[in-house]
């Protein structure tokens, strides 16, 4: 489709069903290692690199140094164990309409990337369990970039892997304030927030996405509209 070359999707809560499981894993891991963090604070950090979250919490609690580094690593290790046992071991399912939207994009020659704050091992387990290897063009996780969301690096890495040169041809889709921040920092053409995940529409609106929808099933109308607009404003874009 003229004007749109790539859509970068978040995973848990956006394209993959979560039902609050990731937040519960966060809470359980923090409790297990003695990290002081409230549920609301952890929910506000959803979408970010999980290791970076534990590092920030540990440094706040103990100050910078070896003790904080050890506490952060212990928290992250506990999170990994709990997540892989509960989230992956308990089964994984796509959000309604995710695969239909992937097919719709493919039919129009638009590339698809997944990006996530998860680490590589669990990301690969999720993608393989869903059978999505052949449905998407790239999968980028926190292990692949120097900083996680809201830094723009996950999106820019997805652009590199999909050989898309211009941010004006890219749409970012996610369910957290961190997703919105990453999209805005990446400078993409549209930052689409979905209220199907960890945050309600009113909460997401405060972070100024360009579009706010209930779930990914509503994305095609935005892609069509943006494609027409971008083709008019940037008629000489090289789709790469």
Describe the structure.
The structure is a single chain. The protein is of the alpha/beta class and 240 residues long. It has helices at 21-33, 39-44, 50-62, 66-88, 98-107, 120-130, 153-162, 177-186, 201-205, 219-233, and strands spanning 6-10, 111-115, 138-140, 170-174, 190-194, 211-213. The chain folds into 2 domains: 6-17 and 92-233, Rossmann fold, CATH 3.40.50.1000; 21-88, DNA polymerase, domain 1, CATH 1.10.150. A 6-stranded parallel β-sheet has the order 3-2-1-4-5-6, sandwiched between helices. The two termini are 13 Å apart.
Topology, element by element:
Elements: E1 6-10, H1 21-33, H2 39-44, H3 50-62, H4 66-88, H5 98-107, E2 111-115, H6 120-130, E3 138-140, H7 153-162, E4 170-174, H8 177-186, E5 190-194, H9 201-205, E6 211-213, H10 219-233
Parallel strand pairs: 1-2, 1-4, 2-3, 4-5, 5-6
Helix pairs in contact: 1-4, 3-4, 4-6
